[in-house]
Amino acid sequence: MYGISMISRAICVLRSSSEQVSSLHTQYAMLCLHARCLQHSLAVIDHPITSVLNGTNPIEICTYNYYRGMIYMGLERYADAIECYRRVLSQPTAIAHQVHIDAYQRISLLNLIVYGETFNAKLAGVGTVVCRYIEMEENRRVQQEGLQSMQDGTWMEEVGAAGGALFENPNKWHGDLMSAWETNSPTKMEEAIAANLDALQSEQTLGMA
Question: What is the CATH classification number for the domain harbouring 116?
Answer without folding.
Answer: 1.25.40
